[in-house]
Amino acid sequence: MAVFQHTLKKKVEFSGIGLHTGERVSVKVSPAPAGSGLLIRRSDLGASYIPCTYKHVLSTSHATTVGSGGWSVSTVEHLLAALSGLGVDNAYIDVEGPEVPAMDGSAAPFVYGIQGVGLRLQRSPRRCIELKEEVVVASGGGVVCLEPANHFSISVEIDFPHPAIERQHYAAKVNSKVFRNEIAKARTFGFLREVEWLRSQGLALGGSLENAVVVGDEGVLNGDGLRFDDEFVRHKALDLIGDLALLGAPIKAKVTAVKSGHALHHRVAKALMESAPSWDYSLSPAIEFPSMAPAGGEIPAQVATA
């Protein structure tokens, strides 16, 4: 039975502060024709759309940045994770500013917005990337391994020398329900002792307790605590899903990531796609699409539908 592509039913807009630039920014996500993929541009600069794929990654320093022809958009990974995690194949992404808004530091506001407008089925078969052999990349003590499988699953491990984090592990067979309930709400995190250095490098200028989990010497500084006991590793899983969306199609694979980050995710995507014997396209397996009602709670004020 064929599985078809999906796009949004109508446009949804998000606005807020950029995590790293500290600028007020916004992004509009709109329906796109079947076969388009995820297309992104800097609409404030009048740029043309480019495919949101690994070929257009410009930087992986503290966030994933894509761009072309002198323009760029940073911190795309949370929005891409939401689109990928909910099964959106085709969309126009128009960014007004140098960065996707941080929202609350997770993908949940993007999920609420996408579910708020709903998805539209498109009568074109959905294809996926099917592995023929294992692909492994390693660097600096981190490793990402892609293994052939009949579905998409992840196993993520982190290990930070801080008593609030230490070693954490998260594994799941990922579908839209799992993504929405177990991964999307996990927020980005950082250490208070690193803030001064990051800001001296022009990073984390918009970071606050409103859009990140901040860890001090004594523990988590956010008054409302953590959303999950293992929120840190779940956010790493979120980043992984967002970065793998840059493959340009869903992937059937068991993905194991240990002490990885954006740079290693980009390297494994590039290694896979540029190794012709390692993969081929096939029809997508059946996927579970979520109810298009918001996943609990009110739609954030920074989300507007049209």
Features:
306 residues; alpha+beta; lpxc deacetylase, domain 1; six-stranded mixed sheet; 6 helices; 35% strand; globular
Number of domains: 1
Query: Largest sheet, described in full?
Result: 7 strands, mixed
Mean pLDDT: 92
Q: What is the CATH third-level topology name?
A: lpxc deacetylase, domain 1
Q: Rg from C-alpha positions? A: 18 Å
Tell me about this structure:
The protein is of the alpha+beta class and 306 residues long. The chain has helices at 77-85, 108-117, 176-183, 192-200, 231-244, 262-273, and strands at residues 4-8, 12-17, 24-31, 38-42, 50-51, 57-59, 65-68, 71-73, 91-96, 119-125, 127-131, 135-139, 142-148, 152-160, 166-173, 189-191, 213-216, 219-220, 251-258, 279-283, 303-305. The protein has one domain (4-305): lpxc deacetylase, domain 2 (lpxc deacetylase, domain 1). The strands form five sheets. Strands 11, 12, 13, 14, 15, 19 and 20 form a seven-stranded mixed β-sheet that branches. It is globular, with a radius of gyration of 18 Å. Helix 5 packs parallel to helix 6 (262-273). The model is unreliable at 289-299 (pLDDT under 50). The longest helix is centred in the C-terminal third of the chain and has 14 residues, at 231-244.
